[in-house]
Design a protein that fits this description.
This protein is α+β, with helices and mostly antiparallel strands. The chain folds into 3 domains: 16-148, YojJ-like (1 (3-Layer(aba) Sandwich), CATH 3.40.1700.10; 150-295, Ferritin (Up-down Bundle), CATH 1.20.1260.110; 296-364, Orthogonal Bundle (DNA polymerase, domain 1). Helix content is 59%, strand content 12%. It is built from 17 helices and 8 strands. Strands 1, 2, 3, 4, 5, 6, 7 and 8 form an 8-stranded mixed beta sheet that branches. Helix 6 (151-185) runs parallel beside helix 8. The two termini are 45 Å apart. Residues 1-9 have low confidence and may be disordered.
């Protein structure tokens, strides 16, 4: 994916997520929408007023009053759109007739939905359409359409995703532990690294999906949010440390963030292919899967409690590989800037404990 496409997509996703948060259960706007649905009157609501909106808006009247759910419900009884500010804290106008560019393509058929879709595409301003006949609330952001669902339906899908995440996290812990043991024995291959990267990416993607559910659930998603946080704490850091451990050297080497972006861009169908994952993180193609690779030591050093990141950087820069770190004595470690006698002993004992526990878990 080109960088400009990624930036544009990210901007659109952020706007969609922010709008979903403002209409989540428990918010005043969601209460107003539910009142409109119960009253079966329908509504067209625009988030924000700029020059483009003003150019296509005619009629109606200016209000500029604080937002309330009851006011939104009453104003929805009239024909025309309701214009709010971007934060949905003020009702700016009501009874407005919107005339977007009729040449803009839309698959919507109803007048209200068609107008909402075209306004959103033309201005990039979020628009909500409430259908009286179909009893649904549709959110339009750019070219994206999202139907707001009942909290129970979202929660059902979220719980299924959470159960999947738990299974994937368990498998991730297994392959990550196996990789640590192989690192200590200096037996790592490209395949071993790619399998861990694959599992990390799978967990990250499912967690992102659940985050969207949490956002849509609003106050109803608090318990789900706590469960998600418990499962994925440290996963993002693990992704970065793994890439830093195994990224190839040289002037033309991509940055850590670029490699993580490449991994994130691997399609869902290709993600099950270990060779495609290895290629994304610049470790070679299918023919290189059984090639030996050596870690720098970031992952293992990060497991030692209270070891600052700056010290980890200096240790890796000084020794170069994990095997040299494992072979280093207290005196060797003290030659690194910022590593005194106490810290050197902490690193030495920490690495020894990690090596012992990893080997025991692997062979006992």
């Amino acid at each position: 994916m080109a960088s400009s496409d990624r930036i544009s997509k990210t901007s659109s996703e952020v706007k969609l997520r922010n709008t979903l948060a403002s209409v989540a259960p428990g918010t005043p706007l969601r209460e107003g929408l539910e009142r409109i649905l119960r009253g079966r009157t329908g509504a067209l609501i625009v988030f924000g007023q700029d020059r483009e909106i003003e150019a296509m808006a005619t009629g109606g009247f200016i209000l500029d009053v604080p937002f309330s759910a009851t006011a939104l419900r009453e104003l929805a009884k009239m024909d025309g759109a309701i214009v709010l500010d971007r934060e949905a804290t003020q009702i700016l106008r009501a009874g407005v007739h919107l005339m977007p560019d009729p040449s803009i393509f839309t698959q919507e058929t109803g007048t209200r939905h068609r107008t909402a879709d075209r306004v959103a595409r033309q201005t990039s301003v979020p628009v909500i359409s409430v259908s009286a006949s179909m009893h649904i609330v549709a959110l339009y952001v750019g070219g994206t359409r999202r139907v707001l669902e009942e909290a129970s339906a979202i929660l059902g899908r979220a719980n299924q995703a959470l159960a999947t995440l738990e299974r994937y996290k368990l498998r991730l812990d297994e392959v990550s532990g196996a990789l640590t043991a192989l690192e200590i024995e200096d037996l790592v291959t490209v395949r071993d690294v790619a399998v861990v990267a694959q599992r990390l990416e799978m967990v990250t993607r499912i967690a992102s999906e659940i985050e969207d559910y949490v956002l849509e659930l609003g106050t109803d998603g608090r318990l789900l949010s706590l469960q998600l946080e418990e499962l994925v704490t440290g996963v993002e850091m693990e992704r970065e440390l793994m890439v830093r451990d195994y990224m190839p050297g040289g002037r033309r080497t991509k940055s850590v963030s670029a490699l993580l972006d490449d991994l994130a861009d691997v399609s869902a169908s290709d993600l099950v292919d270990v060779a495609a994952v290895a290629k994304a993180i610049s470790l070679g193609t299918a023919e290189h899967l059984d090639s030996a690779v050596s870690p720098r030591g970031y992952r293992l050093l990060a497991k030692i409690p209270r070891l600052p990141g700056a010290v980890i950087e200096r240790l890796v820069d000084h020794f170069g590989t994990l095997q040299k770190l494992l072979a280093a004595g207290v005196e060797d470690l003290q030659t690194v800037e910022g590593v005194g006698d106490l810290r050197a002993r902490t690193v030495r004992e920490g690495l020894s404990r990690l090596a012992e526990s990893s080997i025991l878990e692997r062979y006992v």
